[in-house]
Design brief:
The protein has two domains: 222 residues, Quinone Oxidoreductase, Chain A, domain 1, CATH 3.90.180; 135 residues, NAD(P)-binding Rossmann-like Domain (Rossmann fold, 3-Layer(aba) Sandwich), CATH 3.40.50. Helix content is 25%, strand content 28%. The protein has eleven helices and 18 strands. Strands 3, 5, 6, 9, 10, 17 and 18 form a seven-stranded mixed sheet that branches. Strand 1 and strand 2 form a beta hairpin.
Length: 369
């Protein structure tokens, strides 16, 4: 093995423009693997890192966190995976040893080891990236907007090589977050009614997961008409333009409120509306990532009617478990990944994809290497 030079999208510091540059991807250490990235989604969370509003980002950083590829080399002690295996990059890495993990609640792991992994630091306290001879960090520990990445073994989930990597790269973040919000957090049941504010990359997956869970009514709300049409293809039974009187429109569909309401935009002020759309005993789930330090204002009496206001950290998933479930849904024809991809682009075209975040008429741009 030897250090590999790779092109990557690097952000030197928040608030600046990222650049395409050459980085050194070091050999995998014990318990690590190096991946040749095949494809990476361009996600709104990358935009948060560029703005400097994501708490896990360190600088300089290699952006990208929705990736899939092929294992190029493995470090000492790695088991269950080998060179040539196809893998999906995973973000949430339960430590396996904290109190929550020992209780079987790995999705709630919040250990220092987990936070260290997701900030791009290996077990020895170093990273496996160098930029201009200095240490750099992979976003969420994976840094997938690069030709190669060295990551912890726990952050790669092997999949059948017959599955398309350009589609399954999205499983690592947008798809699994939407799926987990429905299945793990809100626990939508057959016959439930669902409202989704924000029908973009994650919202589309909330919609198709709600359909897979058996929801009878699924209302999509968005400001972009084309995304509402896309929402119908993923299972929305009703659509509402954000410029309308959303509360009035949804009351005409579900007079008593919805069983589960999902805020997938990341605007705290929308949570007040979401709570008002939630039925007595229903669940209001904050899926979008709000700016750090932002506040929520609502009438606390709203919660006395057994309404639940729930957070949703990445869909509360355990990657090894939930990606396997996504594969089963995909093979059964229930999970539509191809429909999420609006554009397949090269790495040189990534700046246009970043500029389109939050404004595009489709769910995702995918960089194909």
């Amino acid at each position: 093995m030897s250090t590999i030079k790779a092109r990557a999208l690097v952000l030197e510091e928040p608030g600046t423009q990222p650049v395409l540059a050459e980085v050194d991807v070091l050999d995998p250490g014990p318990g690590e693997v190096r991946i040749k990235i095949a494809a990476s989604g361009v996600c709104g969370t990358d935009g948060h890192a560029i703005e400097g509003t994501h708490p896990l980002a360190r600088w300089p950083i290699v952006l990208g966190h929705e990736g899939a590829g092929v294992v190029e080399s493995v470090g000492e002690g790695v088991t269950g995976i080998g060179v040539g295996d196809h893998v999906v990059c995973a973000l949430a890495v339960p430590c396996g040893t904290c109190r929550q993990c020992r209780r079987g609640l790995a999705e709630h792991c919040n250990s220092a080891a987990r936070r260290q992994a997701m900030s791009g630091v290996m077990a020895d306290g170093d990273s496996r990236l160098r930029y201009g001879g200095e240490r750099a960090y992979p976003f969420f520990g994976v840094g997938t907007l690069a030709e190669y990445s060295t990551v912890r073994r726990e952050q790669v989930i092997p999949i059948d090589p017959a599955l398309p990597l350009d589609e399954f790269c999205l499983a690592g973040c947008g798809v699994i977050t939407g799926y987990g919000a429905v299945m793990n957090v809100a626990r939508v049941r057959p016959g439930d009614s669902v409202v989704v504010l924000g029908a973009g990359g994650v919202g589309a997956n909330v919609i198709q997961a709600a359909r897979a869970a058996g929801a009878s009514t699924i209302v999509a709300v968005d400001a972009i008409p084309e995304k509402l049409e896309l929402a119908r293809t993923f299972g929305a039974t009703h659509v509402v333009e954000a410029s309308a009187d959303v509360a009035k429109e949804i009351a005409a569909i579900e007079p008593d409120g919805a069983d589960a309401v999902f805020e997938v935009v990341g605007k705290p002020e929308l949570l007040t509306l979401c709570l008002s759309l939630t039925r007595v005993g229903g669940a209001c789930v904050m899926v979008g990532i709000p700016p750090v330090g932002s506040k929520i204002t609502f009438d606390a009496f709203t919660l006395t009617a057994n309404r639940r206001l729930l957070g949703c950290r990445g869909g509360a998933v355990v990657p090894a478990r939930d990606i396997e479930r996504l594969v089963s849904l995909y093979r059964g024809g229930t999970l539509n990944l191809a429909g999420l991809i609006g554009r397949r682009i090269g790495l040189d075209d990534v700046f246009g994809a970043l500029d389109a975040l939050g404004k595009s008429t489709f769910a995702r741009s995918v960089v194909v290497f």
